[in-house]
C-alpha cells in the first residue's frame, strides 16, 4: 500500500476544497438569487461580520458546551450500560430492547418530549446524549463480547486480578470499537443537538440562530451558522483524535 | 498425592474420559503421549480446573496451585516480552524476569511485542511465563512446538530442576527420551496403554 505524505494530503485536500467551492460558486451563478443560494464569498463575508460580535462567540461556545456535555453523558451512560449488558444475560434481556427503542425513536419526538419534561437549555444536552448513547452502547458491548476467550482463560489460569484482566485484555479489545463509536456519534451529537436548539430556542444557541434565519429569510446567515457547526465539529473531532492518540502513546496498555 | 479418581467427562455426545483414574508421580517429568484427540489436553485441563468432571474428582491439588502452559502461546498482543513476564510475577519477584528471559534466550528482546517474535521465540516466552508463575503441579501442552533440539534440552533441564511434578504432552520421541517416565495413552475414552 502506498503511504501518503503530509504535503500530498494537503494538496489533495486543497484541490477537493477548491473543486467544491467552484461547484458552489457555479451553482450560485446559475441560480442567480442570494435568497436561494448565496455565493461562497457572501457567506464568508457574513461569517466574518458575525465573528466580530461577542454574541457570536457566546452562541458558538454555549452550543459547543451543550454538545460536549451531551457527548460526555451519552458516552458514560453508554459504557455503563454496555458493561451491564455484556455481564449478564438478564440485564441484556432488559436493557437491549430499551436501547434499541431509543435508537429507533425519531429525534423530533424525543426533542418535544424532553422539552415537556425539562428546561429549554437542557434539551440539546439530553438529546445529544440520547443519540450518542446507543452508538457507544452497541460498539462497546460488541468490543467486550469480541474479547478473545482464550486470553480470558489464560488470565484466569495465570491468576490475574479482575482489574488486571480488564486493563490488559478487555480494554484493548474494546478500544477500537469505542473509538469508532466516538467518531460516529460526534456527528450525531452535533446534528441532534443543533436540531434540538432549533426546536426549543435556548437564548444563546446556534440552532436558535438557524431558526431565526428561516424567519427573516437570511440564507447567507443560515450558511454561515452551518459552516460554524461544521468547523466546530471538525475541530472537536481533531481534538478527540489527538487526545486519544496521546493517551495511547503516553500510557501503558 | 495428586490424582484423578473415577473421572468421567463428555463433550456433548463424545465421552472423553470414563471412570478414569490416575496417580500423578510426585516428582520429575512425565510425558503423556498418544494419538491426537485421545484426551490428553482434556486431562491437563481437568487437572488445571478448567473442566469440571461429571463424575469423580481431582485430589491433592487446587486450580490455584497448578500451572498450565496452553497448546497455543496466548501472549497478550499489546504487551512487550518483559511485560508478559512481569504481568504474572508478584511485585516482590519482578526482578526474576531477567533470569527467565535468559532461560528463554530472549535477553535483549525485552521491549519487543509478540507480533515481532518468531514462532519459536513466542513459544519460549510462553514456556518461561508459565514456569515463572510457579505452582505445585506443572501441566505443559506440547511445550516444545517450534523449538529446536538444543533449546529443548535446555528447557527440559529447567523442568527437571522444578520442585514439583511436571506432566507434559508431546508426540515427539526425543522429548520422551529426555523425561523420567512416559505414559502412553489411547482413546477416547482416555485410557493408559502402558509406560
Q: What's the CATH class label of chain A?
A: Mainly Alpha
CATH architectural group of chain A: Orthogonal Bundle
- Assess the beta-strand content of chain A as a share of residues: under 5%
Strand content of chain B: 25-35%
Number of strands of chain A: 0
Rg result of chain B? 17 Å
Assembly type of the shown chains? heterodimer
Average pLDDT for all residues of chain B: 90
Question: CATH homologous superfamily of chain A, by name?
Answer: MetI-like
> What ranges of chain B have pLDDT less than 50 throughout 5 or more consecutive residues?
none
Which percent range fits the helix content of chain A?
Answer: over 70%
Largest sheet of chain A: none
Give the N-to-C terminal Cα separation of chain B.
Answer: 19 Å
How would you spell out the order of helices and strands of chain A?
HHHHHHHHHH
Radius of gyration of chain A from CA coordinates: 22 Å
Percent helix range of chain B? 25-40%
Q: Give the tally of β-strands of chain B.
A: 9
SS element count, helices of chain B: 6
CATH topology of chain A: MetI-like fold
Amino acid at each position: 500500500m502506498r503511504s501518503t505524505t503530509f504535503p500530498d494530503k494537503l494538496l489533495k485536500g486543497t484541490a477537493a476544497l477548491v473543486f467544491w467551492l467552484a461547484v458552489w460558486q457555479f451553482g450560485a451563478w446559475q441560480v442567480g438569487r442570494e435568497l436561494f443560494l448565496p455565493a461562497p464569498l457572501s457567506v464568508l463575508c457574513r461569517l466574518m461580520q458575525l465573528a466580530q460580535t461577542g454574541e457570536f462567540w457566546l452562541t458558538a461556545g454555549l452550543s459547543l458546551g451543550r454538545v460536549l456535555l451531551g457527548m460526555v453523558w451519552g458516552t458514560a451512560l453508554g459504557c455503563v450500560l454496555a458493561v451491564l449488558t455484556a455481564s449478564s444475560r438478564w440485564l441484556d434481556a432488559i436493557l437491549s430492547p430499551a436501547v434499541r427503542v431509543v435508537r429507533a425513536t425519531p429525534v423530533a419526538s424525543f426533542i418535544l418530549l424532553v422539552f415537556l419534561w425539562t428546561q429549554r437549555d437542557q434539551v440539546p444536552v439530553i438529546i445529544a446524549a440520547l443519540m450518542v448513547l446507543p452508538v457507544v452502547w452497541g460498539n462497546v458491548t460488541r468490543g467486550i463480547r469480541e474479547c478473545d476467550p482464550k486470553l480470558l482463560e489464560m488470565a484466569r489460569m495465570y491468576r490475574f486480578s479482575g482489574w488486571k484482566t480488564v486493563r490488559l485484555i478487555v480494554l484493548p479489545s474494546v478500544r477500537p470499537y469505542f473509538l469508532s463509536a466516538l467518531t460516529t456519534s460526534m456527528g450525531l451529537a452535533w446534528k441532534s443537538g443543533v436540531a434540538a436548539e432549533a426546536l426549543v430556542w435556548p437564548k444563546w444557541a446556534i440552532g436558535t440562530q438557524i431558526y431565526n434565519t428561516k424567519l427573516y429569510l437570511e440564507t447567507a446567515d443560515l450558511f454561515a451558522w452551518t459552516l460554524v457547526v461544521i468547523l466546530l465539529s471538525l475541530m472537536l473531532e481533531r481534538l478527540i483524535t489527538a487526545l486519544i492518540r496521546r493517551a495511547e502513546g503516553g500510557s501503558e496498555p | 498425592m495428586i490424582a484423578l479418581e473415577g473421572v468421567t467427562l463428555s463433550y456433548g455426545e463424545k465421552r472423553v474420559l470414563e471412570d478414569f483414574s490416575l496417580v500423578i508421580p510426585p516428582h520429575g517429568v512425565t510425558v503423556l503421549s498418544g494419538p491426537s484427540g485421545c484426551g490428553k489436553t482434556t486431562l491437563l485441563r481437568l487437572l488445571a480446573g478448567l473442566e469440571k468432571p461429571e463424575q469423580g474428582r481431582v485430589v491433592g491439588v487446587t486450580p490455584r496451585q497448578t500451572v498450565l502452559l496452553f497448546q497455543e502461546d496466548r501472549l497478550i498482543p499489546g504487551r512487550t516480552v518483559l511485560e508478559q513476564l512481569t504481568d504474572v510475577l508478584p511485585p516482590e519477584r519482578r526482578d526474576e524476569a531477567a533470569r527467565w528471559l535468559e532461560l528463554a534466550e530472549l535477553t535483549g528482546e525485552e521491549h519487543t511485542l509478540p507480533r515481532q517474535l518468531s514462532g519459536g521465540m513466542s513459544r519460549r516466552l510462553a514456556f518461561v511465563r508459565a514456569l515463572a508463575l510457579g505452582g505445585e503441579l506443572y501441566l505443559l501442552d506440547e511445550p516444545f512446538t517450534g523449538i529446536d533440539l538444543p533449546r529443548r534440552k535446555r528447557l527440559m533441564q529447567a523442568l527437571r530442576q522444578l520442585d514439583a511434578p511436571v506432566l507434559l504432552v508431546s508426540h515427539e520421541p526425543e522429548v520422551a527420551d529426555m523425561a523420567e517416565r512416559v505414559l502412553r495413552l489411547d482413546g477416547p475414552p482416555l485410557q493408559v496403554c502402558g509406560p
